[in-house]
Amino acid sequence: MNLILLGPPGAGKGTQAQFICEEYGVPQISTGDMLRAAVAAETELGRRAKTCMDAGELVPDAVVVGIVAERLSQSDCAPGFILDGFPRTVAQADALANELAVAAKKIDAVISFRVDPDALVERLTGRRTCRLCGAGFHVNFSPPVHEGKCDRCGGELVQRADDREETIRRRLQVYDSQTSPLIDYYAKSGVLKVVDGMLPIDEVRSAVKEAIGSV
Ligand code: AP5
Ligand code: MG
């Protein structure tokens, strides 16, 4: 099962990707997480990516396409994968299609999350992520049992550097101009499944399962 999760910042891509991973046993490939790992490790790639990410801009296509191609070639992706946050431009989508064609693979479904812009800002300003295991929480919508501590591993919960309101606004503009054209792109190829991302997390989870079930 090869899936793409498509949606604006804060739409719930990461939240739902974790559920799908647990349920179907296929890896989550989050370009945002991979880039943040490179930033934390202070690699050359990380240093270049940080400038773009802190400004709410996209990292250049060639960089992201390269890291995804490398990741998809690893053996755990053989039974399937969930792309979370990639592709984000038409050029990335074309590059992915070429990579998959060479490997005789295809995308089975693109789950597109529809969420009101005001809700996105509220979700992102309240998001907290575990520093150790990456589990996601929200101070109001999905709070941890003990404030500031991860339910899964006890790690410290932190706020992402790009979750400041002005950066969020820029990320939303970038989504509208560069990423939202992918909704039509995948609708034309017949793989698009639209899910109402405004529902509570568990209901979105059920809707995603239903969408995957019909693949
Ligand atoms: P990335 O990490 O991908 O961020 P994003 O796309 O902006 O998306 P988010 O991770 O912010 O949101 P999400 O949809 O995962 O929401 P979540 O589930 O956490 O990218 C970061 C940066 O890296 C980019 O800006 C760019 O610079 C760079 N980058 C990454 N990929 C790239 C690419 N392909 N090309 C170029 N550059 C790239 O949910 C958010 C919050 O809401 C959580 O607190 C959650 O608990 C809560 N929540 C979730 N669902 C619900 C619900 N149904 N109801 C209420 N609350 C909910
Ligand atoms: Mg995410």
Provide key terms for this protein.
215 residues; single chain; 9 helices; alpha/beta; 8 strands; binds BIS(adenosine)-5'-pentaphosphate; 5-stranded parallel sheet; 3-stranded antiparallel sheet; binds magnesium ion
Q: Could you explain how this protein is built, in words?
A:
- It is a single chain.
- By secondary structure, this protein is α/β, with parallel strands linked by helices.
- Helix content is 48%, strand content 15%.
- The protein has helices spanning 13-24, 31-40, 44-54, 61-72, 90-102, 117-125, 165-179, 181-188, 201-213; strands spanning 2-6, 28-30, 81-84, 109-114, 127-130, 136-138, 157-158, 192-196.
- The strands form 2 sheets. Strands 2-3-1-4-8 form a 5-stranded parallel sheet, with helices on both faces.
- α2 (31-40) crosses α3.
- The longest helix is centred in the last third of the chain and has 15 residues, at 165-179.
- It is globular and about 45 Å long.
- The model has no long low-confidence stretch (mean pLDDT 96).
- Bound molecules: BIS(adenosine)-5'-pentaphosphate and magnesium ion (MG).
- BIS(adenosine)-5'-pentaphosphate (AP5) is lined by residues 7, 9-15, 31-32, 35, 52-53, 56-59, 64, 85-86, 88, 92, 123-124, 126-127, 136-138, 141-142, 162, 171, 197, 199-201, 204.
- The site of magnesium ion has 5 residues, from α1.
Structure summary:
With 215 residues, the protein is α/β, with parallel strands linked by helices. It has helices at 13-24, 31-40, 44-54, 61-72, 90-102, 117-125, 165-179, 181-188, 201-213; strands spanning 2-6, 28-30, 81-84, 109-114, 127-130, 136-138, 157-158, 192-196.
